[in-house]
Amino acid sequence: MSDTAEPMIHEDRLPGEEAKLSPQPKWKPRYPGAGRLKDKVAIVTGGDSGIGRATAVLFAREGAKVAIVYLCEHEDAEKTVEACKAEGAEAFAIATDLGTKSNCEDVAKKVADRFGGIDVLVNNAGEQHPDKDIRDISEEQLKRTFQTNIYSMFFLSQAVRPHLKKGSAIVNCTSVTMYKGSSDLLDYSSTKGAITAFTRSLSQNLAKDGIRVNAVAPGPIWTPLNPFGGKPPEEIPDFGKDTPMGRPGQPNEVAPSFLFLACEDSSYMTGQVLHPNGGYVIGG
């Protein structure tokens, strides 16, 4: 088998179309902008839907030029770009598989050429595939999950590094599963552990250059990821009900964490993780 694997779109309908999700996730920003990312250039991966869409549109409201990167959900991506432009921002979308280094280098070049630089990188793209038994996780699935969830963060961070300068920020998306585990998401939760370690290590590596690296660890959030194959169908009706708040979160309840870590409001924070997770008390 090759060291790389193709996207597992046909196996379980991932990444999933937000346009077909019912009820529709809440992604629109809830508060007026304050120019916290004025004149900044931001890349948001997985920006076509869910947390990525909410983050991209919030960044646009706060004055950023936004490039969203996505795999194949063109209708969702177009809607996100239109929503960013409606906020008065310049925005465009790039469809690609971030699991390969060359594609990540191509993304960085396209954004820098179009917007003149890169200030903020949000590594949000991810995939998950539930399995009850570790023996059911195929070699292809294991490779693919690591490619999308952690290799892409390395590759894209490498690719944008020449453009980052003092005041730039990288914000990675880890998960509550990194902290409390997940019996059905062994490969996914393992990548999230790697992402947290990567965040902490890269923050130390770049601190001397004034570049901050932090992460967000969402709990159960109502996005296409789970209902379109990321969770068994019989578990969807109770999705998020085991949180202390008794419900799943919405994308626009997570996006402000990404904004805070991307802007100067968090200027004395690096190597840290925020936890919009519905009330789980998490150590670390």
From TrEMBL:
Region (Disordered): 1-32
MF terms (GO), sorted A to Z: oxidoreductase activity, acting on CH-OH group of donors
Biased composition (Basic and acidic residues): 8-20
Protein's UniProt keywords contain Oxidoreductase: yes
UniProtKB keywords: Oxidoreductase
Tagged with keyword Zinc: no
Annotated InterPro entries: NAD(P)-bd_dom_sf (IPR036291), Sc_DH/Rdtase_CS (IPR020904), SDR_fam (IPR002347)
Pfam families recorded: adh_short_C2 (PF13561)
Family the UniProt entry places it in: Belongs to the short-chain dehydrogenases/reductases (SDR) family.
The name this protein goes by in its record: NAD(P)-dependent dehydrogenase (Short-subunit alcohol dehydrogenase family)
